[in-house]
Each structure stands twice: as structure tokens, then as C-alpha cells.
Amino acid sequence: MEWTQVDVLTTSEAVEAIANILTEQGASGIQIDDSQDIQNYQKADETVVIDWDEIKYQQTGAKVIGYFPQDVFVTEALPVIENKIKQLAEFGLAYAPGTVKVKALADDHWATAWKKYYRPVRLTRHLTIVPAWDDYQKVQTQEQLIVLDPGMAFGTGTHPTTRLMIEALTIIVRGSETMLDVGTGSGVLSIAAKHLGVKQITATDIDQVAVDKAKENLALNPIAQDVTVKVSDLLADVEQTNVDLIVANILAEVIVPLIPQAWAKLRPGGHFLTSGIIADKLDLIIEQQTKQGFIVDQQLKIGDWCGLIAHKPAVNESNQFTAQG
Asked: HAMAP family, alphabetically (predicted)?
């Protein structure tokens, strides 16, 4: 089968937004080459397992690459993609240069591209992301594997925003929680949460195509077989209430309308974990969360990306911002 490769040159700040644009227009897989990757992995100390001398990587800015199957009419989609990229400026995202290039790609080249750029990555002491094709062997008995096929959905779970969310989950999860995973994408956060001890999870994404892709990844991980995935615009179509935990790794502009929905779904004392927040949007999200009534407990940061740990006050608990860097 022939594939079409669409390359977008952009900034590290805009990679998630552009990846979502390409996915919405029919990309079956997304590859991100980000010049910040080395910096982010080096900060992980002993968790680094990528040999950067073996692969080429983006020296400045970032490149988001979308792979489109032959049944997608890319010529028709290109003007939409270019227009949506330009609209990112309205959300305060610097995307320049935002140039788009297209080329044909044979099926065997597609497979080679994925296997060249993705390797097992140790995210925490106990969680390692492993590409589905890799015959990875555990280094330690307590190591837990998150198996992903990067061709199925946006990202491989190693982007700083995902790492921030997994760090937040590691801090908050105590076991047996109920959780809502908003904009689940590859399903990586649901899989990680199950490894950490979360009991019941409902994950959502914006359309059926995205949900089906998440289900494929969840099926690769036996521990996540019982995760429910459904189509929902944020939490609008989710019936559960009084849940212990809500996680969302999405753009700051999308977090804003999610805040009142999360408030309504959480139990008193429940936690709201958010990531995908570029540094200059952090104050906005803190303001909106505290305005709703959330108490922001902690800020997390990798490079220009931020995450927040907040909670809905328990009965008789005052709302006072106590964030710690």
C-alpha cells in the first residue's frame, strides 16, 4: 500500500496541536522529531535508554510528520491542514514557520520510519514504554511495561506533557481509584494508571476513529483490558459522577471548558490532573481552576511544558492556592 507523508516544520510548543490537526484529517500515524527531546531525556537521569548517536534528530524547532493511507485524499485535506495551523496563532501558540511538505511513501518505508525512531523508554522507576514490535526484556522484576503501537494514535507517550502526567499519577494514585481519562489519545495514561493501581477507568476521545485507535493500544496491554473507551466531547457524554480522579493531557484552551465539567464529576476531595499547558498559559489555567473552586496543590514542569495537580475541596475545606514548584 502507498502512503502519503506530510511534514510540518514548527516549534516545540505547537507539536501536540499540529499532531491533532493531522490526525483529525486522517493521518494513521504521527511522528514527532523535537529538538527538545535530548534535553528532556537527559533530565530523566538513569531512565535514558535512547542512543542519540544512532539516530538523526531535529536540531532546532520541531517537525511533525503525518502518515496518510491511500484512501485519504491528501490533496483535498492540505488546505484544511494549512488553515488550521495558521489558526493556532489565535490560541497564542507560536507555530512558525508552519511550512507543509508532502511526499509519497511506500509501505515498507513506512514501517522502517516507525522502527527507526521509536525505542523502549524508561519513564519512571517502574514504568517503561515499549513499541509493540520490540522484544524488550524487563531489567527489573518490578518494572511494568506499557506496550504501544505508535502507528495507531498520536505519539508514543514519551512527550514531556505525557511524562508530566505520569509523574502526577505516580504522586497521587494510592490504589482502587475511579478515574476519567479525557482525550485519551494512545491510551497511555489509562494503561499507566492501571499499572499504578487505579481500579476503574473510563477514557474518552472526540470521535469514533480516535476511540478505535485507543482500543487497539489498550488491547496490547492485558492489565488495561477492562478500560472503557467512549466517544465524548470532553466529559459531556460521560454519566459517571463522584469519581476520584480526572486526568487530561490536552491543550490549555481545551482545559478551560473542561474545568466546570471536571468539577461536576469529581467527588469532594477528588483530584484533577492536567497537562499540555505551555508555560505562558499556566497562569490562565491556575486562575480558571481556582475560580471554579479547585485547590491547586502542585506545579510540575519539563522545559516549556507544565502540569498541575489540583483537587476539589473536601467538605469544610477552604479554597486556598498552595501550589509548590
From this structure: Methyltr_PrmA
